[in-house]
């Protein structure tokens, strides 16, 4: 599943996931992602998009996937320490295996699970945007993208409320699909 996380509320563990993978697969197949992998590679300009890693996920990565992985500690979260490629201004996610793809499977960070959607802050309001670097999205209709973003909005905004450090600052060029508290039918904001 692409977006599986749990939270406790009044003693219950709520799973906010199952339908997310299905919804994202309407606009982006796993096969399309596997061919491209642009979301797993960063240059100096977009290194800020490195996924937010919770303490729980960092511990799990060290225990189950990559015991020698190093992290950069932030206030309430971590970022992957990534080495710059020798002959290029590129940083590849250390969880990307050239043969298998992402080794984290269902344990991918939130940012990776909702890609190519992004949750960002614009004038103190959370918005769901579309990454302009995802080549597959250029072939999709705005109506289709906005519909999918609206279907996922409650889950994305709930996660963002619980993990404010996962919200990135808004950058020009990222089309806004959903504004928190508002639903749009077919239009792009």
Work out the radius of gyration: 16 Å
Poorly predicted runs: 1-19
Number of individual domains: 1
Q: Report the end-to-end length measured between terminal Cα atoms.
A: 29 Å
Mean pLDDT across all amino acids: 82
Short description:
By secondary structure, the chain is α+β, with helices and mostly antiparallel strands. The protein is 26% helix and 21% strand.
Which key phrases capture this entry?
alpha+beta; globular; four-stranded mixed sheet; 189 residues; two-stranded antiparallel ribbon
Write structural notes for this entry:
- This protein is 26% helix and 21% strand.
- The N terminus is likely disordered.
- The relative contact order is 0.17.
- A hairpin with a 2-residue loop joins β1 and β2.
- The strands form 5 sheets. A 4-stranded mixed sheet has the order 11-9-10-12. The chain has a two-stranded antiparallel sheet with strand order 1-2. A two-stranded antiparallel sheet has the order 3-6.
- It has one domain.
- The chain is globular.
- With 189 residues, it is of the alpha+beta class.
- It has 5 helices and 12 strands.
Describe the secondary structure blueprint for this structure:
Layout (H helix, E strand, L loop, with lengths): L5 E4 L2 E4 L3 H6 L5 H7 L4 E2 L12 H11 L5 E3 L4 E3 L10 E2 L3 E2 L3 E2 L7 H5 L2 E6 L2 E6 L11 H21 L5 E2 L6 E4 L10
Parallel strand pairs: 9-11
Antiparallel strand pairs: 1-2, 3-6, 4-5, 7-8, 9-10, 10-12
